[in-house]
Amino acid sequence: MLSKRIIPCLDVRDGKTTKGIKFAGNIDIGDPVAMARQYYEDGADEIVFYDITASSDRRNIMIDVVRRVAREIFIPFSVGGGIRTLEDMREVLLAGAEKVSVNTAAVQNPGIIAEGARVFGSQCIVLGMDVKKVEPSAQIPSGYEMVIHGGRTAMGIDALWWAREGERLGAGEICLNSIDADGTQAGYELTLTRMVSEAVSIPVIASGGAGHPEHLAEVLTEGRADAALIASMIHYGTYTIKGIKEYLDQKRIPMRLTW
Amino acid sequence: MVVVIDYQAGNITSVVRSLRALGVESTVTESPEVVLGARRVVFPGVGAAGVAMAILKSRGLDQALREVFNRGNPILGICLGAQIVLDHSEENDTPCLGLIPGRTRALPRTPGLKIPHMGWNGVDFGGSHPVFAGLPATAEYYFVHSFYPDPAETSMVMGTTEHGIRFPSAIGWRNLVATQFHPEKSGRFGLDILKNFLAWDGVC
């Protein structure tokens, strides 16, 4: 039986892992290569790197991190943040990532999803979605709207429609981040996650809000997610991946427990 | 010489890196001559069967693979490389290499079941093939696929996995073994399979 995946997410800025709350007030918390290696050994099923470097040299710094990570870990890892063109995708994939996550660029130019899927295969194109809860309207019937720029810019696009559209364009997976829940450690956005997961046939990774293993249990059952992204829970040593997996195993959620 | 065939079917850098982690520098090639000079061949790949077969044929890699297979060198197919070694693929209704008799079929779609089958799943290794020896029964491996290899004889099925149906996820015949999952992305036990393959003489 297919296991549900536990995926540590590392936000990387200027080559260092960083963590912020609601996309603000970031502090550096470590070396992404060493952290990735540690999480690999601790039983992570996959690792996500999100590049939030603002400097013009961002691509080179991140490519160097990806190269070094690829020498150390032998599980899939994906890279997102600032990926805008096929060339950006190619660079990251050749440096050793299995998948690229496209977020803002996909909303602004949906063709990038189709092109990426055609050239590199759907399996390595992740549609990253930053979503904010709004009042349902004619334009946003689901009550969830696509946002970019870390939640500062609303796009006027319905998140549920966009998820289906992303699948149609050829995305192989969706990483669904709730801006409202992100960094709160108060639990995932279950309604949103379930709505999107039931609307598409590709896997959905839930992101934003994990603070307790029970939050993962909720989103992997009630929320119908195929995988759960975690960050603060493990970055500060509050929980271990092993501990989280054992908790979920007790709840009869299929987990990879041998590594 | 260990040769990794590059036929523009996805990213093969992780295969090369995994072999390197095991102390083996492989030669990546798209040349049939180089493939013919191989002692051992890794045949990875992701993507669609139709495109992949067209590229293999246009470069003469199909013939080179047949020759290497017929002369007995160990070959490891991975993912798409485990599908197009059969006679035929349902994907784009594609005639394939025919190194192992059988057909590649689509995973049946049922409500609530996610396709592609993506993530970690167990493999029930029934037989005693040397490439799949010494692995813990609870180990899991990383899959990403919508089609699966279905060899003509059950004796060619080396391992099975459950996703909606129970399907062959590791197959083998003569000097060829192939996995639907990605050993190069399957952590320690995936590396063990690659290590076993590197030590295998092609006889089982």
Folded structure, characterized:
The complex is a heterodimer of chains A (259) and B (204). Chain A is α/β, with parallel strands linked by helices. Helix content of chain A is 36%, strand content 27%. Chain A has helices at residues 32-42, 58-72, 86-94, 104-108, 111-120, 159-169, 190-199, 213-221, 232-235, 241-250, and strands spanning 5-13, 16-21, 24-30, 47-51, 77-80, 99-102, 125-133, 144-148, 153-158, 173-178, 204-207, 227-230. In chain A, helix 8 packs across helix 10. The two termini of chain A are 17 Å apart. Chain B has 204 residues and is an alpha/beta fold. Chain B has one domain (2-199): 3-Layer(aba) Sandwich (Rossmann fold), CATH 3.40.50.880. Chain B is 25% helix and 31% strand. Chain B contains six helices and 14 strands. Chain B is globular. Classes of the chains: A alpha/beta (259), B alpha/beta (204). The interface between A and B is medium-sized, with 33 and 36 residues.
